[in-house]
Design a protein that fits this description.
- This protein has 258 residues and is mainly beta.
- Helix content is 3%, strand content 50%.
- It folds into two domains: 137 residues, Lipocalin; 112 residues, Lipocalin, CATH 2.40.128.20.
- The protein contains one helix and 20 strands.
- A hairpin with a 5-residue loop joins β5 and β6.
- This is Lipocalin-like domain-containing protein.
- It comes from Mucilaginibacter corticis.
Length: 258
């Protein structure tokens, strides 16, 4: 069982990226008068945690690689979709140029922005002898033509989760394909698996939703679902989806049909 309590503290911090559009420095960036567009979606890269003793000697160093993204909105709200339960809240900037999540509440968290550019963000939180550093990358929005292919199933990683815990990761392999068509329709075909009959083929509509750049299937219908495109190359596709009803994160890997 992987605990991500400290990870959550950090992920919530994502909102911190409010710094100036200057050459990146290893010192805290003032969040006031920022010229960098931080009001967007940031993809989670990694979270580092260093623990020091009273003599400032390093006791432990850990790195985790959560999935998901953090959305910062111009109405002073934020949304975090990562390994644990989805989180929503408010943000502001304090007089010390720090980004504050959930200000004036029991869940208030203050963060320093130590690096910020158009395509990357590094946040840091210090809790006594614990220093947590979060790394983010600008979320890259795919265009429609780059997705309009037949994508054959490779494998799926399914990770059930709790409030701040990923319970385990399950490897699934089921033959089939996912086809995104130029007329905004899609086809999903799954083959039999483990002696069980295949589910019926699915057909519907697809598109890219704004803001956020999520691929959305069957928009405004009862079976609507959305995916984050985590990786897209000329011959492979990786998408990530959080099922908040079943409380399972799905990372689905595909290869372009040849």
């Amino acid at each position: 069982m992987k605990k991500y309590s400290s990870v959550w503290v950090i992920l919530l911090a994502v909102v911190c990226f409010y710094a100036c559009k200057k050459e990146v420095k290893d010192t805290q960036i003032c969040l006031h008068d920022s010229s960098v567009n931080y009001l967007k979606r940031w993809a989670v890269q990694s979270i580092e945690t260093n623990v020091y003793n009273n003599n400032k000697e390093l006791l432990s160093h850990t790195v985790v690689y959560p999935q998901g993204y953090f959305q910062i909105n111009d109405d002073f709200s934020y949304s975090l979709f990562s390994d644990g339960d989805p989180v929503n809240g408010k943000w502001n900037i304090n007089k010390n140029c720090e980004f504050v999540l959930n200000p004036a509440t029991a869940k208030e968290r203050d963060f320093s922005v130590i690096k910020l550019s158009d395509d990357s963000l590094v946040l840091r939180q210090t809790l006594g002898g614990i220093i947590i550093t979060q790394h983010y990358a600008a979320f890259k929005c795919p265009d429609l033509p780059s997705l309009q292919f037949r994508w054959d199933n490779a494998f799926t990683l399914a990770a059930p989760y709790g409030p701040d815990t990923v319970i385990k990761t399950i490897y699934l392999r089921q033959p089939g394909f996912f086809q995104l068509n130029a007329d905004a329709s899609y086809n999903l075909v799954q083959a039999p698996m483990n002696g069980m009959p295949p589910p019926p083929p699915l057909m519907g509509t697809w598109g890219i939703a704004q803001p956020g750049c999520l691929v959305v299937l069957d928009k405004r219908k009862p079976n609507q679902r959305s995916f984050e495109v985590q990786k897209l190359t000329k011959d492979s596709l990786v998408i990530w989806r959080k099922d908040t009803t079943a409380k399972v994160n799905y990372q689905q890997h595909y290869s372009k049909h040849k």
